[in-house]
Amino acid sequence: AGMRVAVVGAGVSGLTATKCCLDEGLKPTCFEQSRDIGGLWRYTEHIEAGRPSLYPSVISNTSKEMSAFSDFPYPEDFPVFLPNARLLDYLRHYAERFGLRDHIKLGTTVVSVRKRPDFATTGQWDVVTEVDGKQTSHIFDAVMVCSGNFSEPSLPLHCFPGIERFQGQYFHSRQYKHPDVFQGKRVLVVGMGNSGVDIAVEASRVAMKVTVCTGRGAWVLSRVFDHGYPWDMVFNTRLMSLIRNSLPGPLSRALINYRVNQWFKHENYGLQPEKRYFLPVLNDDLPSYILTGRITIKPGVKEFKDKSVLFHNCSEEEPIDIVVFCTGYNVSFPFLEEAVVKVENKHASLYKYVFPTHLQRPTLAILGLIKPLGAIMPVTEMQARWVTRVFKGRRANMSSPRYQNTVQTGHIFSLPCTKTDFNCLVYMDNLASFIGAKPSMLGLLCRDPWLALTIFFGPCTPYQYRLGGPGRWEGARQAILTQWDRTLKPTRTRVPTGSSSPCPSVLTVMGFLLLLAAVVFGF
């Protein structure tokens, strides 16, 4: 009859989870609390409780070739980095193309997901949903949690002494929609994530003065990278990953340090990160805005006064009218009981960042908790491909005793997982090898050398995980060989397009030697 799977949420993760269920012959029902699909990427002017909130100017940080689901490339005329409305279009096309709509129940909130009394033998779940205040109970064989991690803002006011006597206005970045609130004001942005920097840049176009304060600094990358190629297509290649992994830690960090300081020297701009590594911030304007005095960078807040703020290691007060707290989000699963996922001070124990480690049966998975250096779509899709095969109990490296042993060791990590020494490519290869979809470099080098070289030296686009194994897609090879054409098409609008991809000569030679070494040592 096919296993019944409940999918919670119809955003990026929920849509691909639903599709992977269908691919594996399972029966998914996807519950989405809002009135449409798209999750984070569906912009609404008003802010809805329990739903992510975008500001209208949000543009994807990752390029379209790197952000595609692996069997569904973006249309060639879409811009390389996508405004939120285009990304939503893509998600809608995806749902259309794979017939996902029939399996999605909109306006349906998941109230609770609990183990059934006979869970130890059946692995089944009781799922209670609510529509217009009316509750219904269902039984499911498995559950995929795809509710995202940008719904519950984290605003630790106790970390900001004196905030209660500050007379100006303050709010969390989740509340931000348009820069006109900053007109003529002196603005303080607390925190330096992607939202913080975006908001500071937008504010500085209308505000009297903008200050960004950050305790730890940040690496800043531009979407426009070497020779104008998209940053992730240059940065995220198998060659780069191999170099980063083969070099000793300090050397690898020195290399990254050198790369990110090529655009501008971070310490001259007050941005040098405290810790050696964490995720870079993507913004194309920040350094020039600092250079033109529109934005000033300061250390963390020491305390607030009535109409001003004091920073650490700074003696004078800075007058401020309005504060935006860009302090991120808490991950929460209000519908899950504590026993299923133990989140203790932002840490959880999940096998491969997906399966809660202490469940007797692996019939509940949490998708998309990772924040990779790169796009989330291919990662969460790979998780879904693996998870659906685990549910099905096929070739999924989860046979009970072994699963139990591996799982007891678990992976305790902070939520969402943002370790930058976390190598996304290695993780993707790891999951792909569980389902038999990892591209074999040696086999390809013999059979299809041009494809092998493109995969190794070129950007690590998701299509390579559809070349073989379950879910193999006929169009994968073609998609890989034409990825640069789709990247250049939307910008080469005045001169005819020829095919060109960046092929650095010295790197090629070095890389080829590395490739040989890799093949010999079984990469």
From TrEMBL:
It comes from the Eukaryota. It is found in: Endoplasmic reticulum membrane. GO terms for cellular component: endoplasmic reticulum membrane. It catalyses: hypotaurine + NADPH + O2 + H(+) = taurine + NADP(+) + H2O; N,N-dimethylaniline + NADPH + O2 + H(+) = N,N-dimethylaniline N-oxide + NADP(+) + H2O; trimethylamine + NADPH + O2 = trimethylamine N-oxide + NADP(+) + H2O; hypotaurine + NADH + O2 + H(+) = taurine + NAD(+) + H2O. GO terms for molecular function: flavin adenine dinucleotide binding; N,N-dimethylaniline monooxygenase activity; NADP binding; trimethylamine monooxygenase activity. Its main location: endoplasmic reticulum. Keywords: Endoplasmic reticulum, FAD, Flavoprotein, Membrane, Monooxygenase, NADP, Oxidoreductase, Transmembrane, Transmembrane helix. Its cofactor is FAD. It holds the Pfam family FMO-like. Gene3D superfamilies: FAD/NAD(P)-binding domain. Belongs to the FMO family. PANTHER family: DIMETHYLANILINE MONOOXYGENASE. This is Flavin-containing monooxygenase 1. The gene is Fmo1.
